[in-house]
Amino acid sequence: MSDAEATGFSRLEETERFSGWTISLVQATFESPDGRTFERDIVRHPGAVAVVAVDDQRHATLVRQYRPSVGTFVLEIPAGTCDVDGEEAEATARRELAEEAGLEARSWSQLATLYNSPGYCDQVTRVFLATGLTDHPTDRSGIEEEFMTVEVVDLADVAGLIAAGTVRDATTMVGLLLAERATPLGD
Fold first, then answer.
1. Catalytic site positions
2. DSSP 39
3. Among 65, 81, 106, 171, which has the minimal tally of Cβ within 10 Å of its Cβ?
């Protein structure tokens, strides 16, 4: 039984209203457990990955990238859309870490799977921890990535960076806080 069936909600139909390069917008009709129907606009997204790359000194590598949707540069962990058909999430994460931060990692583990904005979007992001870092050539694409910078933060400073508003991206917050707990001192 699916989660939807277990809740008593069911999707009756879906009509695509817009289809873009990465996302689409659909209008979906649902039926509630008591038989009422309702409509919701839903953004369909192929999913994403994000990588917390931590070195032997417990420093995480972040990127500062211009994000047109919020009109400013955002400090975030390397991340990317799952836009290559058939590519496994970890392979996408490896590719994004190399492309954006110029790093490869010897060890990989998944820290979390999260819904970014479940009120209107079906995007699922898998957050990975990457350790045993070595340098790799970057291969940035897109205008925003041309102006991207790489920054290193100490995991011990994460709570302060969040409280100060230096880190505002939710996926980055989750990833850094989980990496701080998963990366013991001396590793």
1. 144
2. E
3. 106
Report residue 115 as tokens: 């819904």
C-alpha to C-alpha distance for 180 and 172, rounded to whole angstroms: 12
Which amino acid is located at 14 in the chain?
A: E
Position 1 scores a pLDDT of: 52
Strand pairing class (48-54; 124-135): parallel
The C-alpha atoms of residue 177 and residue 181 are separated, in whole angstroms, by 7
Please give the average per-residue pLDDT across 125-153, as a whole number: 94
pLDDT tens, residue by residue, 145-155 = 899 999 999 99
Task: Tell me phi and psi for residue 180, to 5 degrees.
Answer: -60, -40
Spatial separation of the C-alpha atoms in residues 41 and 18, rounded to whole Å? 11
Instruction: With H, G, I as helix, E, B as strand and everything else as coil, classify residue 108.
Output: strand
The full set of domains in the chain, from first to last, is 3-44 (no CATH), 48-182 (3.90.79.10)
